[in-house]
């Protein structure tokens, strides 16, 4: 956790119910897709909590298994009260973060970063000096993190083409090298193969061991 002399960040991580999450992984990992989605969220949360600039992580979810898993490693669970889309969940999480931790910046982080490195996340958060900043994903069109300074509305615009949408809204893209793990969100088997090459966290590694052991999805690893 962060040194209390440093003004740290509060992270909001939205997690869908894993029964419906990561649908594009279903073809390659038909039996393990829910477990992978849950593992991604756990590894992302654990890495975020290990960053020296993170004061707390709020996981916005209605999935009871995910809630139990992330609570066990130190996250705060916020029910997805709006029950609407991703941006509504993030607005709700950001509002709860501001209420609980006044005076802190709030950042929305993708739950699908199984290779996330705490040091890389810390470097990104340290670079968030604008009112609102964001990280463009590996393909170059989406967003893996959106950060707002204390007292500034998060104003999330996640979805198709979110990188352009966030930039159009005034957010500043973070231009750093060496932050591959922050940019590598996973939607497809090819994305997961790249994350495995970067080095995934223990929860995802455990599921991948099951995948390899049952010879399901091994083709995805070769992408």
TrEMBL record:
Pathways per UniProt: Cofactor biosynthesis; coenzyme F420 biosynthesis
Source species, domain of life:
Bacteria
Task: Provide the function of this protein.
Answer: Guanylyltransferase that catalyzes the activation of phosphoenolpyruvate (PEP) as enolpyruvoyl-2-diphospho-5'-guanosine, via the condensation of PEP with GTP. It is involved in the biosynthesis of coenzyme F420, a hydride carrier cofactor.
Binding-site list for phosphoenolpyruvate: 143, 159, 162
Q: Per the UniProt entry, what is one GO biological process?
A: F420-0 metabolic process
> What HAMAP family does its record include?
CofC
According to its UniProt record, this protein's enzyme class is transferase
Native species: Kribbella antibiotica
Q: What is catalyzed by this enzyme?
A: phosphoenolpyruvate + GTP + H(+) = enolpyruvoyl-2-diphospho-5'-guanosine + diphosphate
* Name of one Pfam family that matches: CofC
Citing just one GO molecular function, the answer is: GTP binding
The record, for InterPro entries, names:
CofC, Nucleotide-diphossugar_trans
Gene that codes for this? cofC
What's the protein name? Phosphoenolpyruvate guanylyltransferase
Its family remark reads: Belongs to the CofC family.
């Amino acid at each position: 956790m962060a040194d209390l002399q440093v003004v740290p960040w509060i992270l909001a991580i939205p997690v869908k119910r894993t029964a419906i999450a990561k649908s594009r992984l279903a073809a390659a990992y038909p039996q393990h897709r829910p477990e992978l989605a849950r593992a991604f969220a756990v590894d992302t949360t654990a890495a975020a909590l290990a960053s020296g600039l993170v004061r707390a992580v709020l996981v916005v979810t209605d999935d009871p298994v995910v809630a139990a898993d992330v609570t066990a490693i130190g996250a705060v669970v916020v029910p997805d009260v709006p029950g609407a889309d991703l941006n509504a969940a993030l607005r709700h999480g950001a509002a709860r973060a501001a209420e609980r931790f006044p005076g802190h910046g709030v950042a929305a982080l993708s739950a699908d970063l199984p290779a996330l490195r705490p040091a890389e996340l810390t470097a990104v958060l340290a670079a968030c000096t604008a009112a609102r900043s964001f990280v463009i994903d590996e393909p170059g069109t989406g967003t893996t993190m959106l950060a707002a300074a204390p007292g500034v509305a998060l104003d999330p615009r996640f979805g198709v083409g979110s990188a352009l949408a966030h930039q159009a809204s005034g957010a500043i893209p973070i231009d750093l090298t060496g932050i591959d793990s922050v940019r590598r969100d996973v939607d497809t088997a090819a994305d997961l193969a790249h994350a495995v090459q970067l080095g995934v966290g223990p929860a995802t590694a455990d599921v991948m061991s099951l995948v390899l052991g049952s010879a399901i999805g091994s083709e995805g690893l070769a992408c």
